[in-house]
Amino acid sequence: xxxxxxxxxxxxKGTIDTTDLNGxxxxxxxxxxxxERTQEESELLDMVRVEPxxxxxxxxxxxxxxxxxxxxxxxxxxxxxxxxxxxxAIEFNVTGQYYxxxxxxxxxxxxxxxxxxxxxxxxLSHFERAWANDVQNLAINAGREGSDIPEELDETFDGxxxxxxxxDDVSERIGIDVDDETVDTMPTYDHEDAEDGPQPVxxxxxxxxxxxxxxRFRDPDSQVxxxxxxxIQQYYFELTGREDGLGVAVLQGDNDVTPFSYDMVGVAYWxxxxxxxxxxxxxxxxxxxxxxxxxITESDKTMDEALHSRTLMEGQFDFQIEELQSGVLATxxxxxxxxx
Length: 340
Known about the structure:
Blueprint: H1 3-10, E1 24-25, H2 28-41, E2 49-53, E3 57-64, E4 86-93, E5 98-106, H3 116-141, H4 151-156, H5 160-165, E6 174-177, E7 180-182, E8 188-190, H6 203-212, E9 224-227, H7 229-239, H8 245-251, E10 263-266, E11 275-278, E12 283-288, E13 292-296, H9 300-304, E14 307-321, E15 328-331
Parallel strand pairs: 2-12, 8-15, 9-10
Antiparallel strand pairs: 1-13, 3-4, 5-14, 6-7, 9-11, 11-15, 12-14, 13-14
Helix pairs in contact: 1-3, 2-3
């Protein structure tokens, strides 16, 4: 059995062919396999929490736990009738947030010996890679200050950085402090110097991000520092200048860099001037279960361009952060240098 056919069969319990790709909603087993395969294709989606959404609007209840929830009473006294613990919700809403990807498969890209099941595998494999790539980009950049993605996408979606900046005005988020019951933005540390401007990724950045994070959330076993791959490479390069064992180990690729025991993770499409300290499980990607595939095989377009088929996948999704106060957004990072 060919590798392409293996790919097709791995997507669901039985085989599918190109006739199954026309005007249908993905069945439940194929939908769940599609989520798993897109996670494998995306370094970010593979870390975050993925929420299959059975409804287009869903609220996820959250219980706020203040610094102290309990109280005392005298031996013969009564307990207070109320508690300081309060409830809120984070909201997923994919209404009006349609996203589609079009794939034109050329006739000359199809081998004469390929079966319809194998062709379906080629098409689905493309959608897995393309969907994972696009969603990762949108999850990071959509709606954030300074984003350069197309305006219509920037106005439709709010990614993780935008939510950390305060873009989510629908959810009712509960703060951790007794006197601060709601929270709209993630704690922020500005790494820019008043005189010298943006500063490079360095030990001071890591220390101040950790110190900005409330102590109850600090956990190097689960939290990571997310930044661009170029910033990680720049930091590695700076470490190689050290005249000690760490510099040699980094240069030879024998040592993972874990400042203050926190892992650094470079993510494609992450902006160079921002970093985030967060447990990736706090980041949620919600995909509505009504993902649809439509395929066109006979039209003037397909005939004129010698296409095997034109296939479209369309879905609706949203992004959320479970607990805003559990992370830190760092701004004011200097651009990584090249050739200096």
